[in-house]
Amino acid sequence: MVILTSIRKSPAYLYAKTYCLCALVSLVQATPISSRFRPANQTTPTRFRNGKALTCRIAPDNEPNKASLSNKTTRIIDRWYTRVADLASVKTSLKRDGTDTATYPELQWDAKVRYGSSLHPKEQEFIHLRKVRISSEGKNSLHHCLCLPRDEIVDPRDVPLLSLGGSGGGYRVMYGFAGFMAAAKKSGLWDCITWTAGVSGSCWTIAAYYTIAKHDISKLVDHYMTVASELAHPMMSKAQKSIIGLSVMDLYSTLTATYQLLSREPKGRLSRATFQWSKLWQRSGIDRALEPMPILAAVRRVPRYSYEPKTISAKATAIQNDNIARNMDPMRNGSENKSKASSKKMFQYFEISPLEIGSPDLSRYVPTWSWGRTFVSGHSVDRRPEQSFSLLLGQCTSAPAGPLTECIKALLVSIPKDTVMARLVAMLNRFLQSKRFEGFWGNPIRAGHDPNPFYGLEKPVMAREHTSEHSSYRSQAAEPEVANRRTLVTMTASSDVNLPPWEAQGRTRLMDCGMANNLPNHALARPERGVDIFISFDSSSDVQTGAAVQRLHDFAADFDFELQEKTEVFHSPRGNVGLASDHGLEVESRYLNQYARVFRGTRESGRTIYIIYCPLLPNGINPNFNPSTASFSTSTNLMWTPDQVQSVLTTAEANITNYALDTIKRVVRKVYEDKKAQRQALETIG
């Protein structure tokens, strides 16, 4: 088994596997890029503008192909020859990119790990500029959104800092989050938001909005409708021919991102600039605070640490290091004993912004353009072009590569309870946990592999770890654990023999953040950001159960504060008088008080924060559609029709416009008035 594991992790094996898979896909399954251009006498796929179809779809031609066998053979040979030429050109393209300093100026730069919890200097400047833009000194966005008195002057210091976070949920949340953004744009709320962040499927929405849509939400909606109207979906051929698919996360990430981000405009095309995430800072005007700052959230399993001297032989004796670590670290020993009993998976959060990629749990970051480089002792040792954004996006949405038991738990949520299938899946999950299957082999679907920029660096004393399971609303850093942590620090500082632990895992395997918490609040909640209001759009499959709200309390527990629900203070929804059907009125009355739930908490610094939880629920406008139970609205469905896309968009936008928007404005006004009163009181005293 050790030999097989060594072979599986070897670079030669990974290269050979990837090459063979790419060759098979290219030679057998892939369609030439020229096939995207139809002959002049055929109708083009349906395109949409402002929600209206511009051209009509044609039905697929089901007439049998009467071409002779020799012609078919000739076409197959020609296609294979083209594929071989495509593969041969890859090496040339990579070599050219390695010297193209005009497209990739980072080829002339070296990178190093940034230590500390402080924000990037450019983000600090962005926050200041964004507050000025929202205030009366800029575009006066807050004044217009809240409909303040005409003579009211909004001071930049009084501007509430808002963040908008989208959950995971596959294509359902990708479309639903677009509907939320459309409502926020129309109401002026979007212009008052400072950060927008996503988990899993909502990352696709953010990526498309900042790239191909060019900050035009109508263009983004039209793009989604056009994509859904296509007859030649990438999965359609597989579904028709019953060919067993080839599943590797790098291919998944690339194919998914390129398909979703390929413009359907007549002259639309993909370019290398489309996939340069770091360049978005200037191209989108974020450096001038024209748009909210986008952040993608991901997690990784807590890495292995070593207590041996930093030598090559130490890495080769990882098992021995792990035993030494258990004996020297009482906190880790205790937590591992707990994990054996409860099978909890520990995670660390990562945030991916156009500025940098890193972990707030470690307080370490590297420039975004340097991700994928090899680092030694905190400094990059090579220069290469910025990694394609499609690969980063794929890692943030790589739910299939997460811990197997977490994937099964997510599947259990969507299966009706007390059914034979639910019992069988639960039995399988218990079996895998009891046999420690993941520790023995891991998920057969491997997460993306990138060099770990923190390899060889000492473990931060106060490094945070999170779990997807919380037994109560208590913090992970309980009192005995903090005491053990302080004891360990004292032991390490006073002993010349004991060496501080260092990160001995050479690869960073980022995964879908939904494995830990299906909302990006952990990435947004860095104290240095000072977020006042978290707007959380949740399109999880369990939003109609208590598990969804439990995740909010889990988030608060990880940051050592408690949440108190204040929905009744701010949420006073009015029924939609335009509803005519009894069924619509019944659906509205059932969920009327759940479209926006407000929670308040006080952080250790004394700052009061609000969380406005907006789940994707059915409404009276489209009463026959339930996002959580509709057969096409599952997290795993990748084939949607325009009508299905429109159902999600309409439902999400109506939920915000008709029920949640007034609640959000009341909370924003409350925070604005509190900050204004506090500032004026300090000025009076001074």
UniProtKB/TrEMBL annotation:
It catalyses: a 1-acyl-sn-glycero-3-phosphocholine + H2O = sn-glycerol 3-phosphocholine + a fatty acid + H(+). GO terms for molecular function: phosphatidylcholine lysophospholipase activity; phospholipase A2 activity. It comes from the Eukaryota. Residues 103-686 form the PLA2c domain. Its EC number is 3.1.1.5. InterPro entries: Acyl_Trfase/lysoPLipase, LysoPLipase_cat_dom. Signal peptide: none annotated. Gene3D superfamilies: Cytosolic phospholipase A2 catalytic domain. GO terms for biological process: glycerophospholipid catabolic process. Transmembrane segments: none annotated. Keywords: Hydrolase, Lipid degradation, Lipid metabolism. GO terms for cellular component: cytosol. Belongs to the lysophospholipase family. This is Lysophospholipase.
